[in-house]
Amino acid sequence: MPKMNMLQAINNALDIAMAADDKVICFGEDVGIFGGVFRATSHLQEKYGRARCFNTPLVEQGIIGFANGLAAQGSTPVAEIQFADYIFPAFDQIVNESAKFRYRSGDLFNVGGLTIRTPYGGGISGGLYHSQSPEAYFAHTPGLKIAVPRNPHQAKGLLLAAIRDPNPVLFFEPKRLYRASTGEVPEEDYQLPLGQAEIVKEGGDITLLAWGAQMEMVEKAAELAEKEGVSCEIIDLRTIVPWDIDTVVDSVLKTGRLVVTHEAPLTGGFAGEIAATIQERCFLYLESPIARVTGLDTPFPLTLEKEYMPDHLKVFEAIKQSMAF
Amino acid sequence: MTTTTTAPVVHSLAFMNGDEFRIPVFKLLKRDGTPYKHAKLPELDKDKALRIYRAMLFTRVLDERMLAAQRQGRLSFYMQCTGEEATIIGSAAALDDEDMIMAQYREQGALAYRGFGVDEFMDQLFGNERDHGKGRQMPVHYGSKDLHYMTISSPLATQIPQATGYAYGQKLSGLGHCTLTVFGEGAASEGDFHAALNMASVHQVPVIFLCRNNGYAISTPAHEQFSADGIAPRAFGYHMKVVRVDGNDILAVYQATREARCWAVENNRPVLIEAMTYRLAAHSSSDDPSGYRSKKEEEAWRDKDPVLRMRLWLEQQGWWAEEDEKREQDTLRREVLEAMKRAEKRPPPPLESLVTDVYDQVPPLLAEQLDRLKEHIRKYPDAYPRGARGLKEDTQGSGGGEHA
């Protein structure tokens, strides 16, 4: 099996999707001959031509508006928003149009072919506008699916699933891991199911839940905790909408403790949704309050980024507090 | 040329403000239905002319009856096309019937022209179980896949960049279709308008942007919407062909759109049309124009009635007469009233339609929510008469989910 970094895995997934179906069309700012500012679309224009892989003008609302129309027409657009921080000009097209297209037309029309790829997250000294994790805004809008990979293998399998899913999917790529995360990736075409979490490591004392880049923090924290004799069960949610409630519930029924962590701010973050659902379903089994380890309720900082980030030490502390409750 | 590399060079400073370009208005018919001297009318056979006129009359009758129904409390909301029928129906008639139309919300005339049935109109307006949109949207948010008419969305201008994308797909599929998108001069202030025109020009897309400049965005007059000479000059900024037509002159609209369509499809290029018209009706049934414009102004535009102008022209061709008009109007009124009565009586969509079509399949969490809702409605059926209807026989409470 070849070794790839996450960008290569994403590029490989796009290549496979475009080769398999000539309705797949990739576009966005700088994705053409340049291959995207991170090179996720490298060589796609050379291979598939300018009609199927191209630069757009610098207008996010236009990119997604265009993508919605193209998907409604029956194509399979894969639109790139260069940074998740810049997705907001397209907010209306995503939450009022992509998400509601099928519902409002009574299923006469849909934009199920649409996939929006966008790099998210901190840890790259990107400051306010190259670091955000805006998944919770979109999770609050029925009609969208949201997937976040944590490594190259997932990135390829989840992206292929997203492209072929008959619903619009937002695909948040952890840009800190684009080159940092490497691993074996099957050469062939494969998909990982949307809506299904992955139990990364089994354990009996406490459940640790995250997705995307934050999985790295959870794994490091678990190593520290294990040294102190705490057996951690680690779950990668992989898909935020729809999220795999059953897998998390089964785990918490077993462990009685849950730590959820994400980079986005605390208030209104998706961890709140998870905590509410789990306390509802596991109330009598909980040994301690569900802990949330998140970014602060501030804009994303620059110089003090390390202090802001919900790193492995903060997760480790939350594990200890939960165990000692 | 789309770049500045070929621009002439000057050495004395001179600003330009666009007044160099005065965009004329293309007209063919006078108010009395006779052609202007030297006007070359488009070829329009009797069948097509009557198809157009019947759609105009239908739209007028529908709008009158449905506004009245709204005033009687039978309908929650309504929007009239009145005054703009020539712009809407003239442009729709100039397309192939398989071209996509992506409209704003006041363009029911185009659907009428394409053959949307009177019952289909009524079922949407009353949001009953036969509404294609399953009772989910406010009245006038029609859509028809069969008639290539995209379901209406309330947010303004969102359909414009979508039309660019749709037409890009049409270009790639190579079947020779195009997309017509319609919007008001107010919606043209939205960012989506500019995004759409720029992308259509850059990506060379067969899309026709039809702005119906009807003078008002609810109460805001056009001169408070923009300070330039209307919408048409914006095309220059995007290197796009543009024409301005008298939107109350159906033959002018028809011919302009027809040629725009030919050019767009043959060259894979966008075209902008600005149709100068007037919203004779209120913005919607919730609006009262007496607060922002004069009766005198409205009367002046009533004299330019586009339906009357078409009728006069038809009469001059010997294709229409007083008795045809009376018979047609009576028939249409009767059909609309009968269809309204039928639609009012039809039951609402089933409770399950609350949760279908959010995704292609109902996800487990949503199915669970439906189950809980059903349980609740069973406890208080009188409080939810619509939702309680279908629950009487269905006592299992399995909802939409197999997960339970």
TrEMBL record, chain A:
Residues 4-180 form the Transketolase-like pyrimidine-binding domain. Keywords: Oxidoreductase, Thiamine pyrophosphate. GO terms for biological process: branched-chain amino acid catabolic process; response to nutrient. This is 2-oxoisovalerate dehydrogenase subunit beta. InterPro entries: THDP-binding, Transketo_C/PFOR_II, Transketolase-like_Pyr-bd, Transketolase_C. CDD domains: TPP_PYR_E1-PDHc-beta_like (cd07036). Its EC number is 1.2.4.4. Pfam families: Transket_pyr, Transketolase_C. The lineage of its organism: Bacteria, Pseudomonadati, Pseudomonadota, Gammaproteobacteria, Oceanospirillales. Its cofactor is thiamine diphosphate. It comes from the Bacteria. The branched-chain alpha-keto dehydrogenase complex catalyzes the overall conversion of alpha-keto acids to acyl-CoA and CO(2). It contains multiple copies of three enzymatic components: branched-chain alpha-keto acid decarboxylase (E1), lipoamide acyltransferase (E2) and lipoamide dehydrogenase (E3). It is an enzyme of class 1 (oxidoreductase). It comes from Modicisalibacter xianhensis. One of its GO terms (molecular function) is branched-chain 2-oxo acid dehydrogenase activity. The keyword Oxidoreductase applies.
TrEMBL record, chain B:
It is an enzyme of class 1 (oxidoreductase). Its cofactor is thiamine diphosphate. Residues 381-404 are annotated as: Disordered. Residues 53-350 form the Dehydrogenase E1 component domain. GO terms for biological process: branched-chain amino acid catabolic process. Keywords: Oxidoreductase, Thiamine pyrophosphate. The keyword Cell division does not apply. It comes from the Bacteria. The keyword ATP-binding does not apply. InterPro entries: Alpha-ketoacid_DH_E1_comp, DH_E1, THDP-binding. It catalyses: N(6)-[(R)-lipoyl]-L-lysyl-[protein] + 3-methyl-2-oxobutanoate + H(+) = N(6)-[(R)-S(8)-2-methylpropanoyldihydrolipoyl]-L-lysyl-[protein] + CO2. Its EC number is 1.2.4.4. One of its GO terms (molecular function) is branched-chain 2-oxo acid dehydrogenase activity. The branched-chain alpha-keto dehydrogenase complex catalyzes the overall conversion of alpha-keto acids to acyl-CoA and CO(2). It contains multiple copies of three enzymatic components: branched-chain alpha-keto acid decarboxylase (E1), lipoamide acyltransferase (E2) and lipoamide dehydrogenase (E3). Belongs to the BCKDHA family. This is 2-oxoisovalerate dehydrogenase subunit alpha. It comes from Modicisalibacter xianhensis.
